[in-house]
Amino acid sequence: MARIVFMVAGALLALFVLFSFIIPALFALLKFALIIGVIALVVFVAVTVVGKNSSR
Prior knowledge:
Largest sheet: none
Shape: rod-shaped
Number of strands: 0
Distance between the termini: 82 Å
């Protein structure tokens, strides 16, 4: 009986950790990567435009 109770408690604790820490951390990492990608795209476009204008 105690084994079943501890198994259920462990499963609930695992779900709590998953939804409280792991999923928000993944979304924060994804948001950070997206921001870095947008900044890199803006820099790339700026360098390309300046390079094309300077050569002519």
